[in-house]
Amino acid sequence: MPSVADVAAHNSRSSCWVIVSGKAYDVTEFLDEHPGGARSILRFAGRDATAEYEPLHPPGTIESLPKDKHLGPVDDLTLEPEPTATTSEIQTSTSPLIMTTSAPVILPLSACMSLEDLAQVAAIKLSPRAAAYYHSGAETRYSRDRNRRDWSRIGLRPRVLINVGPTPRMRTNVMGFDSSLPIFISPAAHARFGHPDGELCLARTAARMDIAQCVSTYASMTAPDIAAEFFNDPHKRGGAMFFQLYIPRVKKDAEKLIAVAKKAGYQALVVTVDAPVIGKRDDDDQFQALAAAADGGDSENKGKEDTEETLPPLPSQEPGTLRAAHNATFEWSDLPWIRHCWGPEHPILLKGIQTAEDALLATQQIGPDGKRLVDGIYLSNHGGHQLDYAPTSVQTLLDIRRRAPQVFDQLPVYVDGGVLRGTDVIKALCLGARAVGLGRGFLYALSAYGTAGALRAVQILSDEIQTTLRLLGVADVAQLDERYLDLSEFGIERAKL
Ligand code: HEM
Ligand SMILES: Cc1cc2nc3c(=O)[nH]c(=O)nc-3n(C[C@H](O)[C@H](O)[C@H](O)COP(=O)(O)O)c2cc1C
């Protein structure tokens, strides 16, 4: 049984032991294989890494190391774990607060009237590390910010004196599954950064509010545990469970992920195609660098000034890290392989389509059985996390409408990016989307108030969608179209009456 002192003696790249949940592991050989990069582990060489490791990795992750690397329980864990920079008040150069308030008051849930309110509570509650991760955007953050802005550049044109009845119809079909609302939960990694129940909060919300949840490959809980929470929820009214797949570098790993998702009962596969490499998010990278510096640098360079020799590589230059962990060779011709692994019964969506050209190509992918390989396209720029200056979903919707309008007749189109209001959802539907996903909206809601926060977010959106429909004079979301929009800010004028 190793002692804390034994572990502390293995504090370098040449011999690196860490403690996680009271047990010691030899991670020396694993360092260069770690998708989060060697440096993120080296910071904890010879120390307790639980606080950093735990919210990021699903249970069972470190247990998958070869058995001979399990060194057993640490016998004198009476020592207080060292505080690490994870919990300190590190702020990146852009201080990524979600929203600034002159007086940071935590609104009670009952007083949260919008998703912005929930985001404001989250901004106060989230650790700086989590705020950096959730709020970050690629490079100049242009795409992230434009996502939100573009919805506000579209005006609404209400028709009056129309009897829409007391409750306009909001139900729709999302990937073959009935949904109480034209919204769904976009896949987002690391929900346990925001709340200890992480993705389970969202699974309960999907089940109880009868909407779909798309679970990330990098969820902080296992895909089977999240699905079990959804399917066994005692208050379940409906909903659906989709699995989001990043194609890993090793094809066999993709096959394993798909097999696990199928076995767990996931009902649609959402293949993310905009991430052959992870985007350059300065806030995130800077946070990690500041945290390492606050800890005194990695064990080999502790206390030393940054010099040409000691300067750590940029995250993308570390071998095998997250930036390079995805399969950069995946292409259209691989879709039959994905369909083969996933099987014919359940739908496949491509997430991250950003041009009319690719939307059209998606409709043209035909399998050996003569059927379409893809059942829907999902327009997204990944919340501005991937390619900076990539188009917003509004721009891509307009691009498809102008250059390949037949796409809308051939495949259902889903969108996300910058959506926080019922009016945003309505605008997307008017432009031809079937349903709209929210990423940060749900991350902030669960970070603010766990399951109750996420449930509240759906209630708010439902209320806003319903109010908007009534004020527009529309009785059913299926009746929405471009006539209800003012697109003059995009240079699109209406024909004469
Ligand atoms: C015990 C010490 C460990 C620490 C401190 C640690 C830390 C981290 C950090 C900070 C990231 C996020 C990197 C980013 O988002 O930029 C990460 C990602 C990752 N780690 Fe670890 N890790 C540890 C062990 C492991 C082990 C043992 C495995 C697998 C056997 C693993 C698998 C992964 C994977 C797959 C990711 C990428 C997906 C994700 O972002 O969740 N990690 N890790
Ligand atoms: C913190 C965070 C994590 C994300 N993780 C994933 C992921 O694991 N897989 C994925 O396909 N998309 C991921 N996305 C992108 C979302 O699915 C979605 O496209 C985006 O959040 C929509 O923009 P919004 O956050 O403005 O709603 C993530 C986005 C954020 C903000």
UniProtKB/TrEMBL annotation:
UniProt keywords, alphabetically: Heme, Iron, Metal-binding, Oxidoreductase
Gene3D superfamilies for this protein: Aldolase class I, Cytochrome b5-like heme/steroid binding domain
Short name of any one Pfam family annotated for the protein: FMN_dh
Keyword Oxidoreductase in record: yes
Chain intervals for the UniProt region annotation (Disordered): 293-321
InterPro entries: Aldolase_TIM (IPR013785), Cyt_B5-like_heme/steroid-bd (IPR001199), Cyt_B5-like_heme/steroid_sf (IPR036400), Cyt_B5_heme-BS (IPR018506), FMN-dep_DH (IPR000262), FMN_HAD (IPR037396)
Cofactors named for this entry: FMN
Residues covered by the FMN hydroxy acid dehydrogenase domain: 107-490
Domain Cytochrome b5 heme-binding: 1-75
Family statement drawn from the similarity comment of this UniProt entry: Belongs to the cytochrome b5 family.
Protein name: L-lactate dehydrogenase (Cytochrome)
